[in-house]
Amino acid sequence: xxxxxxxxxxxxxxxxxxxxxxxxxxxxxxxxxxxxxxxxxxxxxxxxxxxxxxxxxxxxxxxxxxxxxxxxxxxxxxxxxxxxxxxxxxxxxxxxxxxxxxxxxxxxxxxxxxxxxxxxxxxxxxxxxxxxxxxxxxxxxxxxxxxxxxxxxxxxxxxxxxxxxxxxxxxxxxxxxxxxxxxxxxxxxxxxxxxxxxxxxxxxxxxxxxxxxxxxxxxxxxxxxxxxxxxxxxxxxxxxxxxxxxxxxxxxxxxxxxxxxxxxxxxxxxxxxxxxxxxxxxxxxxxxxxxxxxxxxxxxxxxxxxxxxxxxxxxxxxxxxxxxxxxxxx
Length: 330
Known about the structure:
It is a single chain. By secondary structure, the chain is α/β, with parallel strands linked by helices. Helix content is 42%, strand content 15%. The protein has 12 helices and 8 strands. Strands 1, 2, 3, 4, 5, 6, 7 and 8 form an 8-stranded mixed sheet that branches. The two termini are 12 Å apart.
């Protein structure tokens, strides 16, 4: 590994949030434009959860004819495929009472089209993709830098993308089997919807001699909805079933935000839309109006926070502090 003395290590972490992944994709498009190079050339580690995991795989692997996808192409992926992935019918309200709200078929078809047969070893920079294993009741992280020492962890990207985006109540778990390995994986958002802290911990392990670590955290928009005491006070199992997933994901994200602001100060750069305005906070609102509104909200964030984005880019201008390849070490 290259000498990291006095080197600044850069980390990118991307939140979960379903179709609201449009927001960080638009923001990252602007970041890449200002930096003048692809994001994997800037960041020493890219982490993602759920929809953020899909983005991380898209921008951080050679899955697009030998290179990565651009953030702009990812926006197109959401707009073009979101309506099929989150397709609702008159039976949907009945289905979600006893089954996952959506069949995984459209999601899996999209992932197969998008990632094709690409392996995880194609990572262009170290990647950390989160999931949670129901069978062991433990977090499960896909780590590209683990593959060199343990080739059995070189799964297909479509497996990783399906596992990290298996949001409880929305999609069924993903059953991953390889040799003696057997996992029942769900969306990593149940414990790290904002994967910034996990990414920071991983960077500390990967680059112990770094002089500083800069974490850029791209959010999917801050939900403005609230739950009143009068309503929650009467909820039992059925009442909580609909609300528990967003409550868990939001609370985890806010906790990470607080912790890293305290630990890193200005080296924790949170790129987050605080007010979704006309855009929906729902993970699965794929109406034409909302797809347009999500893009508009993200573009307004970029415009109104141009100075802050300049400051963030100034921290990133030197690029990666390491020359470690995507699967370079355990």
